[in-house]
Specification:
Strand order of the largest sheet: 5-4-3-6-7-8-9
Helix content: 25-40%
CATH topology of the domain at 58-207: Rossmann fold
Largest sheet: 7 strands, mixed
Bound molecules: S-adenosyl-L-homocysteine
Order of helices and strands: HHEEHEHEHEEHEEE
Distance between the termini: 27 Å
Length: 219
């Protein structure tokens, strides 16, 4: 098995948990997930120590693994309960999906970069997260086949709320989406009240790679 963990890296993970906690994350289940999921598996093996800094980091296809604090923050806003059916837009490294799965959610995740999609799908199986259902596609369209979802999380920066995603959310469901016209996005929590109404709340500023349309088969 090419994925190896050790006490030194476990120690770095504990420190990362304390950093994320100090920034305001309170949900112990999320902190526990960060402590137990080896984030260094999700990035290039030459950069192991970088996995335990609270920063985003480059991955395949010019994309990034989100910052641990951002992952924790979005997850906390989702109010995950075990068995929640969750749709993630932007699989990327698979780290956010693994955190959601660790919390007991049934995770469906979509990636638009074909090469990254295959790499992450195989990788998640290799590290024991094969229960996560991965899909190659355009997240703007959601995944109607398995709708409705209890929760939807968008992990790329959007300039609009995709109507299809709101449609695929259950009444009472929560969608967390970084939203805005510039590079720095507002973290928006949308709660669906009924088919015509939703409550929107802003929860601070974050930066993300862009939410792009279509599937990229080249990289
Ligand atoms: N959740 C990821 C974060 C990856 S960055 C992680 O934990 O590592 C955001 C990802 O969203 C990128 O991989 C990008 O390719 C993907 N993305 C952007 N627009 C998309 C779209 N329309 N559909 C699906 N994925 C998209």
């Amino acid at each position: 098995m090419k994925y190896k963990d050790n006490y030194r890296l476990k120690g770095l993970r504990k420190k990362l948990v304390e950093t994320v906690r100090a920034k305001g994350i309170k949900d112990e289940r999320i902190l526990d997930a960060i402590e137990n999921i080896p984030r260094h598996y999700f990035i290039d093996a030459d950069f192991v120590d970088w996995a335990y800094k609270d920063i985003a980091f480059p991955i395949e296809s010019d994309q990034t693994i989100s910052q641990p604090y951002t992952v924790a923050f979005q997850t906390e806003l989702l109010e995950i309960k075990p068995k929640d059916k969750v749709l993630e837009i932007g699989t990327g490294s698979g780290y956010q999906a693994a955190i959601l799965s660790y919390l007991g959610a049934k995770v469906y995740t979509i990636e638009r970069q074909e090469k990254l999609f295959y790499k992450t799908t195989n990788f998640l199986k290799d590290i024991g997260f094969g229960v996560i259902r991965t899909f190659l596609g355009d997240g703007y369209l959601g995944l109607p086949m398995y709708a409705p979802y209890d929760k939807i999380i968008v992990t790329a920066g959007a300039s609009e709320i995709p109507g299809e995603l709101v449609k695929q959310l259950k009444t009472g469901g929560i969608m967390v989406i970084p939203l805005g016209d510039t590079d720095i996005k507002d973290m928006v929590k949308l709660t669906k009240i009924n088919d015509r109404e939703a409550k929107l709340e802003k929860h601070g500023k974050f930066s993300f790679v862009p939410f792009l349309k279509g599937v990229n088969k080249n990289k």
